[in-house]
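Consider the following assembly input.
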Amino acid sequence: NAGVTQTPKFQVLKTGQSMTLQCAQDMNHEYMSWYRQDPGMGLRLIHYSVGAGITDQGEVPNGYNVSRSTTEDFPLRLLSAAPSQTSVYFCASSYSFQQHSGNTIYFGEGSWLTVV
Amino acid sequence: TQLLEQSPQFLSIQEGENLTVYCNSSSVFSSLQWYRQEPGEGPVLLVTVVTGGEVKKLKRLTFQFGDARKDSSLHITAAQPGDTGLYLCAGLPQETSGSRLTFGEGTQLTVNP
């Protein structure tokens, strides 16, 4: 009953370091996405994937890379961390990318990232 | 500029009061969802509305999608401290390919006992 699992929960990085946020889902969902949440900004889409081998940019993709080699995993890579990337990151998944009634999006518990 | 504007941003009320949260846009949405988020957790879906004028009820929560599918509201009757949380609306703009869910900035609700 894992759902969407994100790791790590908390991370502190120095400016210029790189790191990968891991996301895994065990529901055989086609659609996976990464959001960042900042105060007063709601959730903003970074990257998304509609299936294994397919990724696309969201609203705020700069400074982030993603890959989708398997259905289950969708890691988010920070190439060279900057203080502006201090945020809470959420991974989400759903059965398909069609946002119709009954197609629930499941979110992970979040990853708190601080870049100093 | 947010595609979805939520109001109010903050709301603090007493237990038993009623409240309404609004989610407005100048764009048309194929569907709109409401989420509730508690501290330290991810958002949890409450409801999805897809038809203009649609009203859905979830116990003391009533959700309405505007006739023109540009706005939505969430009404809570007789609020309880357990309703405290961040309420987010999110929608799929009609002109997009269907993969970009857009979120409002959220309404932080505090219900005091």
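Chain A touches chain B at residues 4, 31, 33, 35, 40-45, 48, 50, 56, 58-59, 90, 92, 97-105, 107-110 (CB under 8 Å). Ask yourself how this observation constrains the way the partners meet.
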